[in-house]
Amino acid sequence: MFFVRTASEQDLERVQEILRETWHATYDDIYGVAKVNEITESWHSMKRLRDMRHTPQSEFLVADNGTVIGGMAYATQKDKTIKLHQLYVHPDFHGGKTGLHLLIEVENSFIDAENVSLEVEEQNLKAIKFYETFGFKKVGETQDCGEDGSGIPAIVMEKPVVYAED
To answer: What predicted TM-score, i.e. pTM, was given to this entire model?
Structure first.
């Protein structure tokens, strides 16, 4: 069983490893190994991960079972909207509730938010199904998933925030 907590500096190497391995497992067949390597070197660099930890109006979370970190999530808030930038669970831990626990904690981290928005690669059907299971609906599309100029097509999904009871 994983518990969710705020990421520390000591977690960043494992988070980087999770991102690299999860991206290869998910996207090698879509983009090819070389493109996935290029993206992970840029988007998941140690500098970027460190910057994420210090971004105002953000939360950087890890799922930790006391022995290993099995997943991570990163979100920011602007106005009344939470933007879920990343939610990844290492492939060894798919099928449990780790992703759901991360998602719940993201929502609970921003007490005045009204909705959650995210972008998901349109060919990542497992992720789309996961988000639909928890109330997300497609509200649009983008040609630049992740960052301006990425050229990665994605769908935009949203849902109202549902705060978990203690």
So the answer is: 0.92
